[in-house]
Amino acid sequence: MLAPSRCLRESLRCKGEMSALLLLRKFNPKSASNRTEQFFSSLICRLSIRESLPRGSRYFPHTNSITSIPIGVSWVWPLFSILSKSIGTFQLVSTQASPDEEEVTDEAFNQILSAIENDPISCREICSIYIDKLCKVGNLSTATRLLQSLRCKHIFLSPSAYNLLLAAAGEGNDIDLLSQTFKDLLTSRQSLSSTSYLNLAKAFLKENDCVLLLKFVREISELTFPRSAIVVNRIIYAFAKCMQIDKALLIFDHMKSLKCKPDLITYNTVLEILGRAGRVDEMLHEFASMKEANMVPDIISYNTLINSLRKVGRLDLCLVFFREMGESGLEPDLRTYTALIESFGRLGNIEESLRLFSEMKQRRIRPSIYIYRSLINNLKKMGKLDLAMTFSEEMNSCLSDLVGPKDFKRKYR
């Protein structure tokens, strides 16, 4: 059991007990560890005794008053429910105007940290609860102090707690907190999800200071070297996902001056960004620059080009890159054939579509339901109903073997 220390007992006096109460508001004993449950149970017991005394009375705790009370969910949760009602509309003391109250909160804040610093497991759970509360009421200054205190003690929060801070910092346009939170998350060596990168990108929606953005990217690159390219690639992708294409391209250009240079994934990401935006001239320029930098394009590079060009009706260039693929020794895959078969079919060149479909099957590439439907629809438009019926029957006879939607989903890189 986490024994109540002297500083913890002091933190429950006067207004300091309200700071402890705000931790209790989010506590769920069903999901907490034994140590955390015992820690909160002590707090609840002391607070419940004090709350039951008449106003103006003094409470003198005995050092052994906790030990005789059984600790358990059945005892903790009903009492916690009563306490939650008693604090009602209570807001964080540090958000109120009184300087006296601010000072008391600072003291209680430090005492709580002192009480749990020797128990990192409970500390992470308790501080995550505290961070959640601070973010909800918009008290980012205290969240910043808590983050600094934990960093000094080499204690890192869970990824979900950092994501809360990233989102709150973005909403509050606090770039300093955003930057430090993201750095702490990287330093913690925990796996970063796409949510972390998206929260980072969203925070820069209101920020137009490109110098500040590039300074941040440089610091992240230096912090994470030699794996910087992976992190910066994901930052570029996240910015594009949040429709900040120009900022994503700015980071890409800046990356060329960093120690970590753009790699194949970087170029493929940029090709996709430009292709989706319909900026095919810029896309072709970057593809040429990619080869000038001695970067060898892969199947993803060519598929991105072909898919983007067919959307703007440049089937002539699609065929150029299709031939270039073969000359470089790359085998076209399902995505390649899908783009070409659909494009030729829409232009009325159904014979070329059928030839490519036959070639694809000879290469033992599994067809998709999309290709069959495209061929059937285009055959009907051309008045070849019998052939359309033949393909429809063939499709229905092998539905279980066809490639479906889930096979087309690209994993987060």
Described by strand count, sense and barrel closure, the largest sheet is: none
Number of helices: 21
> Got a strand count?
0
Taken in chain order, the helices and strands follow as HHHHHHHHHHHHHHHHHHHHH
Basic shape: elongated
Structural class: mainly alpha
> What does the average pLDDT come to?
76
Radius of gyration (CA) equals 30 Å
Question: Would you write up a description of this structure?
Answer:
- The protein has about 425 residues and is mainly alpha-helical.
- Among the domains are: about 1-90, no CATH class; about 115-200, no CATH class; about 330-413, no CATH class.
- The chain is built from 21 helices and no strands.
- It has helices spanning about 5-10, 15-25, 35-50, 75-85, 100-115, 120-135, 140-150, 160-170, 175-185, 195-205, 210-225, 230-240, 245-255, 265-275, 280-290, 300-310, 315-325, 335-345, 350-360, 370-380, 385-395.
- The radius of gyration is 30 Å and the shape is elongated.
- It starts with 5 loop residues before the first helix and ends in a 16-residue tail after the last helix.
- The model is unreliable at about 1-30 and about 45-105 (pLDDT under 50).
